[in-house]
Design brief:
- The protein is built from 13 helices and 9 strands.
- By secondary structure, it is α+β, with helices and mostly antiparallel strands.
- The protein has 2 domains: 101 residues, Phosphorylase Kinase, domain 1, CATH 3.30.200; 232 residues, Aminoglycoside phosphotransferase (APH), C-terminal lobe (Aminoglycoside 3'-phosphotransferase, Chain: A, domain 2, Alpha-Beta Complex).
- A hairpin with a 5-residue loop joins β7 and β8.
- α3 runs parallel beside α9.
- It is globular.
- Bound molecules: 2-acetamido-2-deoxy-1-O-phosphono-alpha-D-glucopyranose and magnesium ion.
- Magnesium ion binds next to loops.
Length: 348
Amino acid sequence: MLTQILQQFGINIANVEIKPFGSGLINNTWKISLQDNDQAYILQRINNNVFKTPGDIAFNVRLIGDYLATHHPGYFFVRCMFTQSGDDLLYVKDEGYFRLVPFVHNSHTVDVVQNPGQAYEAAKQFGRFTSLLNDFPVQKLKVTIPDFHNLTLRYRQFLDALQTGNAERISACVSEIAWLKEQQYIVQRFDAMKINPAYKLRVTHHDTKISNVLFDTNDKGICVIDLDTVMPGYFISDVGDMMRTCISPVSEEEKDFSRIMIREDYYKAIVKGYTEGMQGELSAEEQKGFFDAGCYLIYMQALRFLADHINNDVYYGAKYEGHNYMRASNQIVLLKKMLEKETLLKSI
Ligand code: GN1
Ligand code: MG
């Protein structure tokens, strides 16, 4: 099946190697390497249970690509390849939607952040992406997942899960549920942020883990990739998810929670990198929101994982029984540790 798809993109499949790639939870991703000429590509199948209109992603990427090519031609932007019939998104009956992008020569991605320098570079790339699109008409973008980072709605979905979800699972995680409910003040802070005019609606990425940045051979950031969730949003989404995924030495998959830690030097690197990348675009009020950004996103992810556990893992899937419960518990520990350092981190 994959080789037929590659053929439609005009790829010679005689000597091709296809390997699963990356660790994303939503889309399927493969690296395609051509043995003859050293070329490589990334092929993705878009999960259309999550992205209901995959054409909207292609639309956004085209629009942004055109804008950057005109206004910031120096920016390295990875565009989708076209099929032989001229489409940048291929629909295959019973298989779904596919896209192909070139694998950029002399670039690499990082799965687990190794040092604060990488976190700085990544944060700078996410800030730079948003700042280059500062004058782009943000309302022209299609919303690929409505309310994606709307914490108010995520909290409501969590409460809904408690009403309609798996009763056995609910009774086995009463203490986590109670703790998350006690943190509802975070939603109120978020609501205040949304109506604060000092928080500008910008073009934000919404999936800012380190693996969505391309690095060069000197570990300097080149550009951001994986633009599925680029939508109108607030800077807190990008900064917050960077903190969520970089600040601790271990990820959401770690089962030994004693290894979860808040590393101040990484926090500092993210604040510095993002601020520099934004080139003065952040308002004074927004600059005060870095710490809260981390809390919003960690809290949101804990709610999403626990709601999914209660909903029998319909969204994220589970590699083992209780996987999403473990992930939620991990994020709860991360949030607790973050909240303990509130005063210290806010002083940075
Ligand atoms: C999903 O598929 P991936 O790993 O890029 C999710 C993110 C979560 C992340 C948690 C569209 O991203 O919001 O933060 O899992 N993406 C979607 O690992 O729901
Ligand atoms: Mg993604």
